[in-house]
Amino acid sequence: MEINFAKCSDVYGILKVQNELLIKNLKAGDKKKNGFLVYSINKEQLLKVLENYENIILCAIEKKKIVGYILSYPLDEWIKIKKYWLERLGIIPSKFKILKKEKLIYLRHIGRDILSKGAGEKLLNFFIKECKKRNFKYIICEILERPIKNETSLNFFVNKFAFQRIGKIKYEDKTTWGVYLYKL
To answer: Given this model, what pLDDT does residue 35 score?
Structure first.
């Protein structure tokens, strides 16, 4: 398996993996076993994200097929997309300073083909190295807690990679997400 920076020609492969992981497309048992994505990104949005060098979009490729991906933005770019994000964020006060002062990257999606073993770990390890090269100080991500807890993602980020929960955010659709930080 190799990890590469995504290109425009990778869009359909990324979207295929994403669609397999969307919660609305999964059976109940698969949600617990494999993790899931709640929100999707469409082709036009993905192409726009690929245009910006500051964003880090990676693909895991096995046998010439995309089996996983990471989609991320510098935090200031994410805040442009979700203008109310900081205001809604319930966060430990000491950690709020980090968001304002340090160079952070927001990890929006990490997805992998359900049958692919190790793609997520390889992607995140490559991503961490790339973030360090670009002088990011922290990675920040959200993991769904309510109405359904994404146990697979919690195990992956917290137990395998030592992300720390620093707060939560609630959205209009009544979902609650834990906000997690990883120091590079």
So the answer is: 59
